[in-house]
């Protein structure tokens, strides 16, 4: 396979190295991952200068070694695991689109989906006896004659089991158990497959712990230092929300969560994925498992005529699961906005424009009862929402809180954190001061 050197899910480079040097490689990788939200193209360019010579391959190899050690660290700490998988997923997404040739892309498809689950267009036509399929021929023609088509894009076919989201959202042409589409439209599923594989690698990495004392010591040191890092704590930990009773302050909920919360309060029903989304969020803003069990038991219409004991055995199990108290005992994080956009519910993605407008106006009126909502600004937000939901959300924040953010909203907990601070519900911790000082009051 012609996998690119930056791709971390391949056989590890030579591990016969000095542990101290290995630790340095891991720290360089941490720096890269931590800086990523500041601008992926600049950060990647700083760490991986675009050169044609072998030195870049050496740099990639060293970073891959660092990534390998970080997997051992993640195997010891669930929170770090969640952070690592999400940020490595983002880096993968960028390097795949920016530093990968067409041949390498094919090999990444095969590596992540399995070679038996990937075919090129011609192969599909012959192997599946689709030579006479006019729709397929039309698809080929349209793809090759599309104006503004990205030249490195190509048609590909992936078995439906690998891309469930594309199947349920009817992305691509479904034929004989395969999804046929252009390479670009598979990128979201490819990223998910990467994150899934990385998670499996983290689990496997547990076997390497307890074998070599100096490696164990290096892992422990990195784990302790990483846990102190601001960005990891502020993005993915709930420590700052603990004991604040924020679940009774829906005014600090981001639009996605307030929409689901209100719908559940009104109807007593939510589909499974939406229950999970709000459940993760309530957990991370400090709701205890007992409070959440009682909340769902009392409010859900499905629990009429069900005793609390029966509820604990059925839905209660799922709630305990999301607290890491059942099953794989994983302390699940709240998904970030890009994951929510593809797999859960974001109003800026999933509501039709007229309904979104109404929802944003009503949400404004809940707070500023007698004031007229700023219709022009809301219309502008609605018009850009589908193509750039996080930008729309970031633009909506100052309308609600009369304060601007200089950081884009990329995670629901970020909205909750800024909102709680502006509402005086939490006091920023010292380590986070730098991020908050970037927000300024505006005269809206
Ligand atoms: S952009 Fe993110 S925080 Fe905002 S509504 Fe959508 S998912 Fe929620």
In a nutshell, what does this entry contain?
By secondary structure, this protein is mainly α. The chain is built from 23 helices and six strands. It has a four-stranded antiparallel β-sheet with strand order 1-2-4-3, sandwiched between helices. It has a two-stranded antiparallel ribbon with strand order 5-6.
Question: What does it look like?
Answer:
A hairpin with a 2-residue loop joins strand 3 and strand 4 (178-182). The protein has a four-stranded antiparallel beta sheet with strand order 1-2-4-3, with helices on both faces. It starts with 18 loop residues before the first helix and ends with a strand. Helix 3 packs across helix 10 (213-227). The chain has three domains: 19-102 and 191-226, no CATH class; 108-186, no CATH class; 229-444. The protein is 59% helix and 5% strand. By secondary structure, the protein is mostly helical. Iron/sulfur cluster binds next to helix 12, helix 17, helix 18, helix 21 and helix 22.
Q: Which helices and strands appear, and what pairs or packs with what?
A:
Elements: H1 19-35, H2 40-47, H3 54-74, H4 78-98, H5 102-113, E1 118-120, H6 121-127, H7 134-145, E2 155-159, H8 164-168, E3 173-175, E4 178-182, H9 187-205, H10 213-227, H11 230-236, H12 255-267, H13 272-284, H14 289-299, H15 308-313, H16 315-322, H17 337-343, H18 347-350, H19 353-367, H20 375-385, H21 389-401, E5 403-404, H22 412-422, H23 433-436, E6 440-441
Antiparallel strand pairs: 1-2, 2-4, 3-4, 5-6
The chain binds iron/sulfur cluster (SF4).
Iron/sulfur cluster binds at residues 254-256, 337, 340, 346-348, 389-390, 393, 409, 412, 415.
């Amino acid at each position: 396979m012609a996998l690119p050197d930056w791709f971390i899910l391949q056989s590890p480079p030579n591990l016969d190295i000095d542990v101290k040097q290995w630790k340095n490689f891991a720290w360089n990788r941490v720096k890269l991952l931590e800086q990523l939200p500041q601008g992926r193209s600049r950060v990647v360019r700083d760490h991986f200068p675009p050169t044609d010579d072998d030195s870049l391959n050496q740099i990639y190899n060293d970073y891959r070694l660092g990534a390998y050690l970080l997997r051992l660290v993640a195997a010891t700490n669930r929170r770090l695991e969640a952070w690592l998988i999400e940020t490595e997923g983002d880096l993968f997404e960028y390097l795949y689109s920016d530093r990968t040739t067409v041949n390498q892309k094919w090999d990444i498809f095969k590596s992540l989906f399995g070679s038996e689950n990937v075919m090129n267009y011609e192969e599909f036509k012959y192997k599946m006896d689709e030579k006479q399929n006019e729709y397929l021929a039309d698809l080929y023609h349209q793809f090759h004659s599309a104006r503004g088509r990205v030249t490195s894009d190509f048609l590909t076919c992936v078995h439906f089991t690998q891309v469930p989201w594309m199947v349920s959202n009817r992305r691509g042409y479904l034929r004989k158990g395969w999804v046929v589409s252009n390479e670009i439209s598979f990128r979201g599923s490819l990223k998910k497959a990467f994150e899934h594989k990385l998670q499996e690698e983290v689990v496997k990495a547990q076997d390497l712990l307890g074998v070599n004392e100096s490696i164990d010591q290096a892992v422990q040191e990195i784990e302790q230092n990483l846990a102190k890092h601001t960005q990891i704590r502020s993005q993915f930990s709930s420590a700052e929300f603990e004991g604040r009773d924020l679940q009774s302050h829906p005014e600090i909920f981001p639009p996605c969560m307030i929409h689901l919360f209100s719908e559940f309060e009104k109807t007593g029903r939510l589909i499974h994925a939406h229950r999970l989304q709000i459940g993760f969020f309530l957990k991370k803003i400090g709701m205890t498992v007992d409070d959440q069990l009682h909340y769902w038991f009392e409010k859900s219409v499905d629990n009429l005529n069900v005793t609390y004991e029966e509820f604990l055995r059925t839905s209660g199990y799922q709630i305990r699961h999301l607290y890491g108290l059942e099953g794989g005992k994983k302390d699940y994080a709240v998904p970030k906005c890009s994951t929510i956009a593809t797999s859960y519910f974001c109003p800026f993605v999933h509501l039709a424009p007229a309904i979104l407008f109404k929802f944003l106006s009503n949400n404004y009126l809940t707070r500023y009862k007698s004031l007229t909502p700023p219709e022009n600004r809301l219309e502008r937000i609605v018009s850009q929402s589908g193509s750039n939901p996080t930008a729309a959300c970031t633009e909506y924040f100052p309308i609600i809180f009369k304060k601007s953010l200089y950081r884009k909203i990329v995670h629901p907990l970020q909205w909750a954190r800024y909102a709680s601070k502006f509402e005086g519900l939490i006091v920023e911790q010292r380590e986070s001061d730098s991020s908050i000082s970037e927000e300024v009051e505006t005269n809206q």
